[in-house]
Amino acid sequence: MRIVSASVDGFRNLKTASFTFSPRVNLVLGRNGEGKTNLLEALNYFALGRSHRGAKSDELIHFDQSHLHVGLDIEEESGATLACEYGLGRDGGRRLRVDGEALRRRADLVGRLATVFFNPDSIRLVRGGPDGRRQFVDQGMAEIDPVFLTHLTAFQRALKQKNGLLRDLKKGLTDLSTTRRELAAWNRELAGHAAAVCLGRWQYASFLTPFSNESHKSLTDNDLQLDFSYAPRLESVSKAISEAAENPISKDDLEREILAELDYIMDSEIRRGRPLIGPQLDDFKVVLEGVDLRVYGSQGETRTAAIAMILARSDVLFQKRQIRPVLFFDDIFSELDRERTRRLQEMASHLHQVFIATARRDDIADWQPEHMKTWQVNDGEFSEI
Ligand SMILES: Nc1ncnc2c1ncn2[C@@H]1O[C@H](COP(=O)(O)OP(=O)(O)OP(=O)(O)O)[C@@H](O)[C@H]1O
Ligand SMILES: [Mg+2]
Q1: Which of 28, 63, 135, 189 is deepest in the core (most CB within 10 A)?
Q2: pLDDT confidence of 333, banded at 50, 70, 90?
Q3: pLDDT for 109
Q4: Closest among 99, 245, 262 to 166, alpha carbons compared
Q5: Do 85 and 297 form a contact (C-beta atoms < 8 A)?
Q6: Where in the chain are the domains?
């Protein structure tokens, strides 16, 4: 998959412009604060239906304008092209279209533009809290299985209701017997979706591990084993997974076990006024030769493992859906040694369209891939060089 061209109007500090990209390597050079990340963010917005920096719509619109519009021509693996566009207004308006047709739900976006984004924050995937790892896995699994996304969304909605109910009870806004009945109903709803979410996360971790291990070996040129594994919070799920080799998991059985676990803890949840267990607390382990990198990894080890995992996500997407995502590298090479940088550049650009933003020309010194296009950005204005 690749972005053939783009037009940008009113996006942060970017001047109105059109771009025709290289199918291989696109390099954006510029000093700090000139607009490199802004361009990548504008391109990547369509993949997620939101800013990868977590910015609100209002922040994405140029200070002096009331709305923004971005159009992207995307070529799919089959050679088919899609005209994607989005517009955001200060009045809160948001339109996303593919070939002129409006998209209504976030789920309609999944897989239209597949991207993988690397920036210095990517290290948080290993070092940071479990929420980053859950989000990484959930997004990866949603890309290859839309049914997973349906369960995840329904699970999150039901959890919010249960949360509200427990809070109201704690504040004395509802009575105990009604709440108990309602909690039991929400637990039944949650158990079904939780079983699907947990199984999906477990599967995704098993898809990812061989690829991340392979990428890690290629990046480092050593033979250390990198394992990414699911660490579920629900005991019923841990147990089912640990016995899966002899006793294949049945989703219905797992759902029943999860429900029993949720019901068992109901009294404690009522006392504490919040849900205490469930996949919303799941984590994943990142282990290099038996050492848990979440806790013990060095800067470089952690960074390399995170990159290997993110690259592996692209391999899984290709294995399951024959899609090669577009890769974005925002200011990432300055933190790797030269050898790893060069290996990563070669590995990434071999099979993907890549966008590289950097303030340091040195990062790509004497790397001359075929079909490279280079832009220099000054104060939001891009010139091809
Ligand atoms: N809504 C907006 N309207 C106008 N300008 C904005 C808006 N949002 C951000 N900017 C400006 O965009 C610039 C930042 O651009 P960007 O983050 O793309 O920089 P960069 O080239 O990636 O820099 P660095 O090398 O430091 O990462 C800042 O000067 C900021 O003030
Ligand atoms: Mg930047």
Answers
A1: 28
A2: confident
A3: 80
A4: 262
A5: no
A6: 2-114+324-384, 130-284
Please tell me if the CB atom of residue 279 comes closer than 6 angstroms to any atom of ligand 1: no
Ligand 1 contact via 64 beta carbon (within 6 Å): no
The CATH superfamily of 2-114+324-384 is P-loop containing nucleotide triphosphate hydrolases (3.40.50.300)
Q: How many residues does the chain have?
A: 385
Residue 365 three-state SS: coil
- Indicate if ligand 1 lies below 6 Å from the C-beta of 33: yes
Whole-angstrom distance, CA of residue 304 vs CA of residue 288: 11
Strand 372-378's sheet: what is its strand order? 115-118, 326-330, 354-358, 25-29, 372-378, 381-384
The position carrying tokens 């050079």 is 29
For tokens 């991207």, what's the residue? 115
Three-point CA angle 109, 114, 115, nearest 5°? 125
The confidence score (pLDDT) of residue 80 equals: 95
- What is the C-alpha to C-alpha distance for residues 365 and 363, in angstroms, rounded to an integer? 6
Q: How far is the CA of 5 from the centre of ligand 1 (A)?
A: 22
**Architecture per CATH, 130-284:** Up-down Bundle (1.20)
CA of 378 to the centre of ligand 2 (A): 13
Tokens of 313: 């996500």
Amino acid at 253: D
